[in-house]
């Protein structure tokens, strides 16, 4: 580690000066194949509960092995994200991973974002509750927490006592919105479970089922026009 950015978890610093409120930016990455109602519900909870000024939705690029990867191209998945969030102030579809020539690690994307936003910005990464237990296995995971805070969309019944011990020091029952918390904390987002996944949607679409209500209308039109997800056959 460069030592330039210290995690605030270990030593929260309190500046006495009444500072201008720190800008808060959230990152929500996913395959988004396609983006659906549960993603939008998560994103809304993320914006509200982390009080974000800005949200970046970042579709993953195309993986090396297409046969096991997404059905829609990276460009199509990005276009659907753009359509789904059109008109929402502060929400942006971020094409950095789509433009990349190789798959990106989360830490790399966060490094780029942090470099662009500067140190005086509270950065939040949204992850699914199931990912939390895998976090200690992610590429340079401690550096992720030097760059950002993490908001976890947990399932009902989630108990922080069951967190891996290495994550315990970062955990906050009550999020810290002070200017000292640019990075280094993990908190839960509370949102009702939505029994929906892109996999389920692709099956419904391939079977010709009506998916209105589960997909934004503009995205549904795009899927129809581009004849996406027409068959489950790979
Ligand atoms: P797939 O079924 O293709 O894996 P997905 O919708 O589960 O798709 P992504 O498109 O990668 O997955 O979604 C981005 C993030 O949103 C992931 O962290 C995923 O866990 C989360 N997510 C998706 N659907 C839900 C849901 N219904 N409830 C909670 N989290 C969800």
From TrEMBL:
Pathway: Cofactor biosynthesis; NAD(+) biosynthesis; deamido-NAD(+) from nicotinate D-ribonucleotide: step 1/1. It comes from the Bacteria. InterPro entries: Cyt_trans-like, NadD/NMNAT, Rossmann-like_a/b/a_fold. Keywords: ATP-binding, NAD, Nucleotide-binding, Nucleotidyltransferase, Pyridine nucleotide biosynthesis, Transferase. Residues 27-202 form the Cytidyltransferase-like domain. GO terms for molecular function: nicotinate-nucleotide adenylyltransferase activity. It catalyses: nicotinate beta-D-ribonucleotide + ATP + H(+) = deamido-NAD(+) + diphosphate. Its EC number is 2.7.7.18. It is an enzyme of class 2 (transferase). Catalyzes the reversible adenylation of nicotinate mononucleotide (NaMN) to nicotinic acid adenine dinucleotide (NaAD). Belongs to the NadD family. This is Probable nicotinate-nucleotide adenylyltransferase. The lineage of its organism: Bacteria, Pseudomonadati, Pseudomonadota, Betaproteobacteria, Neisseriales.
């Amino acid at each position: 580690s460069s030592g330039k950015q210290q995690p605030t978890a270990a030593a929260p610093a309190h500046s006495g000066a009444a500072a201008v409120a720190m800008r808060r930016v959230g990152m929500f990455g996913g395959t988004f194949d396609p983006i659906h109602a549960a993603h939008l519900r998560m994103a809304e909870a993320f914006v509200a509960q982390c009080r974000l000024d800005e949200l970046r939705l970042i579709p993953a690029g195309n993986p090396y092995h297409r046969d096991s990867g997404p059905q829609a191209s990276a460009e199509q998945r990005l276009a659907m994200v753009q359509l789904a969030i059109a008109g929402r102030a502060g929400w942006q579809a971020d094409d950095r991973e789509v433009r990349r020539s190789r798959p990106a690690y989360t830490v790399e994307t966060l490094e780029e974002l942090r470099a662009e936003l500067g140190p005086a910005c509270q950065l939040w990464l949204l992850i699914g509750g199931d990912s939390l237990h895998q976090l200690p296995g992610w590429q340079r995971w401690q550096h992720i927490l030097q760059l950002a805070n993490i908001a976890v969309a947990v399932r009902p019944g989630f108990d922080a006592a069951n967190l891996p011990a290495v994550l315990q020091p970062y955990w906050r029952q009550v999020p810290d919105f002070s200017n000292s918390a640019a990075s280094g904390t993990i908190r839960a987002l509370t949102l009702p479970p939505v029994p929906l996944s892109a996999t389920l949607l692709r099956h419904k679409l391939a079977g010709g089922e009506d998916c209105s209500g589960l997909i934004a209308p503009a995205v549904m039109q795009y899927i129809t026009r581009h004849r996406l997800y027409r068959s489950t056959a790979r």
